[in-house]
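Journal club prep — side note

Before the paper discussion, L.F. wants everyone to see what a predicted structure for a comparable chain looks like in token form. Sequence:
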Amino acid sequence: MSSSSFANSNRYLVFGGQTGWIGQKLVDLLREQNKEVFVAQSRLENIQDVQKELDTIKPTHVLNAAGLTGRPNVDWCEDHKDEVIRVNVIGTLGLLDSCETRKIHCTNFATGCIYTYDTAHPVGGKPFTENDPPNYVGSFYSLTKGMVDKLAPNYSHCLTLRLRMPISDDLSHRNFITKISGYAKIINVPNSVTILHDMLPISVLMADRKLSGVFNFTNPGVMSHNEVLDLYRDYIDPNFWYENFTEEDQNKILKAGRCNNHLDVTKLQDALPDVTIPTVQESMVGVYTRMKENLQKAGQWPPAPRKGPKPSN
């Protein structure tokens, strides 16, 4: 296909598009929009390869959804700190710097897992804005992400989008719904979440407009773990069950801590006055409706019953 066949003259290079969950979704979305997209073959920790690829492809836009989050979860990062530094800090900053010197707009998909509720921002109280300094370093993953979050605004060609607990319409192991539906016990705390069906197209729009700076990138509002799983039971599995336990009990079984927070998205809404971002409560109904349809098409519905006895209380 010739370059004239594409929707515009922009060229998009996606890091994390080979094996990354969000990166692959971005590649699919850009292709659906008939945009010229390239999947990065270089790895963030190999800066010379990254720079060679930038100079060869000459993208107008870079979308960075690469990084180490750990498998099966962020506890992995506690035992692989050198690798995490090399990718999440040195590699990411190297990419941002390389794009800056080449005047390439770079959208960096970051995280809001750098905040946790405190006395100034209690549950149900004042949410965290982009101007609040990170207050959470309970996991090494969050520590590294917070480092880059502080430095990225110094690059004028960089757009930082802070995602939180991303939710999709499928049951990928990366989907927040899949994660907590697999636990027999969960905490019940309200959190900001990023519903990818709504937010990924907005990220491409922001990249196209070459917006820069840091944005909390979640749907407006919060949703508790119980609310997420109650909807899962209502739409997906009527026999689903779960139990609650405290954050203190949760921390006893984890190597690294977990944060909970509410992110203010006023700055995001003000930057996109022509875009309506549905609240998390509005959007979650659509998530589960599409999820059920996807599972039915794949022959995976109804899901297998949960193992183990249902709690009596």
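L.F.'s comment for the group: The mean pLDDT is 93. Keep this in mind when we get to the figures.
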